[in-house]
Design brief:
The structure is a homodimer of 357-residue chains.
Chain A: H1 2-40, E1 46-54, H2 63-85, H3 90-102, E2 123-129, E3 134-141, H4 147-157, E4 162-164, H5 165-174, H6 188-204, H7 208-211, E5 221-226, E6 232-238, E7 248-249, E8 259-261, E9 266-272, H8 274-279, H9 282-293, H10 297-312, E10 316-322, E11 327-328, E12 335-342, E13 345-352
Parallel strand pairs in A: 3-4
Antiparallel strand pairs in A: 1-5, 1-12, 2-3, 2-6, 5-6, 8-9, 9-10, 10-11, 12-13
Helix pairs in contact in A: 2-3, 3-4, 9-10
Chain lengths: 357, 357
């Protein structure tokens, strides 16, 4: 009996001890995993946005306009960053930041999109997820309130990567996305801009304004985010070019041209003269230069924007972010609405070329 | 007076002599340039085509079908090669070869294009010129007789790279391209194929046929050519995927995904499950691997098609050609209609995997 008692006691002790031990072990394991995550998965979260590059000069801006842009960029950064801080995936942050800019008439995306030659707003958007290299895009849509959300829906709920025009709108409606009257995107100053460009076109000869963009802003908004799990996501949304011809598709919705993400290298969202960005495969080329030529994000970014695109004749820029959370925001125009936020920094926003980043 | 006479005579002689001298010099210079061109510019002309990759098996083909395909591929090769032999630019050869395949019901491009889910033919095409990296593309067009010609026209006569839908059709009409009734593209067997896929979709559950392509052929036709001046051009034309949703844009009209050309590296035209080809940036990645990783055309081609695309889940293949006239025709499906022609070879055409190239 005594032996049995001792036996049970031994078993009891064994359980108590192993339980304790297991608790201790779990905690240790958790700690180990956390440390490992930090080391391997680049703990830091990071977010970078742009609101378009172009001829954006201090002397052409009132103090009020300057302040308005900075406030809206900060709001977009904070909205995206809040998602990352809450532990949400990078894509959620990208969508949140871009939607704020789509809903603002300040940027050439969503409300405030520029007008086509026919006086319509045709919107394009794309998203890409770095972990899976899944992607979605819509092109030439006029009735979807949030084109970036439609791009996400194409990625998540269709077997396709890119959908255009009425087909994309029909798909978005089926998915329950908010459909609006095309007039929702109308803003008077963008409409006036079209009239000015068309007038200049008439004066200068046919299509002159389409071939040269002396005073253009290439609107477009974009965001690239890195979440706590080391996943990168990128997105771009745009109204395209003022006076573009009916049916024109620019670089924004084209994976590899205006939008790209791969956890192994980087995420990119571009803004600029889309035709050149398509031909130079700008967004993917950043990744290719890192992956194959061993360049850093900064080296690849600078080479493309300040050397290759300049030689090629392509004006604009992009934002990019690598797996370690490093960011780059190169542009070869006089300005680019841009900003970033990470664990070391509150929202930092910039407009002109001469601002110290 | 005598002095003046001598003076004029001297001037006359001077002119006669320098004129003679100048003629001699010009001829020498011309000769020198010609020799230099021959040495530097890789004299050989070369042409490679494809008519689509997919589940193409010997046991499913009658001898007549097999012969029909081979005859049409040879015809396309000869038409393109004749252009190169006559000294025409690579782009002329690309257009000539592709138009023969567009006009044949055997291939999924032009006549014989597959049907969308809605029972329509929506055609896509793209061209790119390696010397300038100019490019043009149309997507989702239903009334342009030769989509590849429309892509060329976008490249040559518009400020844009990519146009879609009605806007592209309107542009093509303005350019004087031949416009046809959408019924022009109808073929009974492609229509029957849609009905079969839709039936299977109904049986297997919603969109099943869109997510898996067990028996699909990814039609598409393409050509890459190298002309006597060392210029590369590439083009792709397609009807897309059977049962694709209205508005879907595949890889063919997307520069860097299905079509790419750069004299510094190579020209590429792809055929396969477009969504994967877009996400993997297939066409440009061949060039990037050559340019940045120092791979040969063959190494880059094989790595992408037999390793990376297989891991990624993307079935299909491509044709490619480098500045020295080397060609590659890799595919990871059971067959790909393909062929090449160069100074050393009469038209060589192949269909199945086991054929020795």
């Amino acid at each position: 009996m005594k032996k049995t008692y001792q036996y049970y006691l031994a078993i009891l002790f064994f359980f108590v001890f192993t339980a304790c031990d297991s608790t201790t072990k779990d905690a240790t394991e958790e700690k180990e995993i956390k440390t490992e995550e930090k080391e391997v998965k680049q703990g830091p979260i990071s977010l970078v946005i742009h609101g378009g590059a172009g001829t954006i000069k201090r002397e052409n801006m009132t103090d009020e306009q300057d302040a308005e842009y900075r406030a809206k960029l900060s709001e977009a950064l904070e909205a995206g960053y809040a998602k990352l801080e809450s532990g949400a995936p990078a894509m959620d942050a990208v969508i949140a930041a871009i939607q704020i800019m789509e809903e603002s008439p300040l940027f050439n995306a969503g409300v405030g999109a520029v007008f086509t030659n026919e006086g319509k707003n045709e919107l394009d958007a794309a998203v890409m997820e770095g972990k899976t290299r899944n992607a979605g895009a819509v092109a030439g849509v006029s009735t979807i309130k949030s084109p970036i959300l439609a791009a996400l829906s194409v990625m998540e709920n269709s077997p396709h990567v890119m959908m255009s025009g009425k087909g994309a709108e029909q798909f978005a409606a089926e998915q329950g996305l908010e459909i609006v009257d095309p007039a929702y995107f109308f803003t008077q100053n963008r409409y006036d801009a079209l009239q000015r460009v068309k007038q200049r076109e008439e004066e200068d000869g046919r299509s002159a304004a389409l071939f040269e963009f002396p005073d253009s802003k290439f609107g477009t908004v974009g965001c690239v985010a890195l979440d706590k799990d080391g996943n990168i996501a990128a997105g771009t949304s745009t109204g395209g070019m003022t006076n573009k011809r009916y049916g024109r598709i620019g670089d924004a919705p084209i994976i590899a041209a205006g939008t790209y993400a791969d956890n192994e290298t980087c995420g990119v969202s571009a803004t600029g003269h889309g035709e050149y960005f398509i031909r130079a495969v700008v967004a993917y080329d950043v990744a290719a230069k890192m992956k194959y030529a061993g360049m850093s994000l900064e080296e690849a970014s600078n080479k493309i924007v300040y050397e290759e695109l300049v030689d090629f004749g392509g004006s604009g820029g992009f934002i990019a972010l690598d797996r370690a959370g490093n960011i780059s925001m190169p542009f070869n125009t006089s300005g680019m609405y841009r900003g970033y936020m990470n664990e070391k920094s509150s929202p930092k926003v910039f407009i002109y070329k001469d601002e110290k980043e």
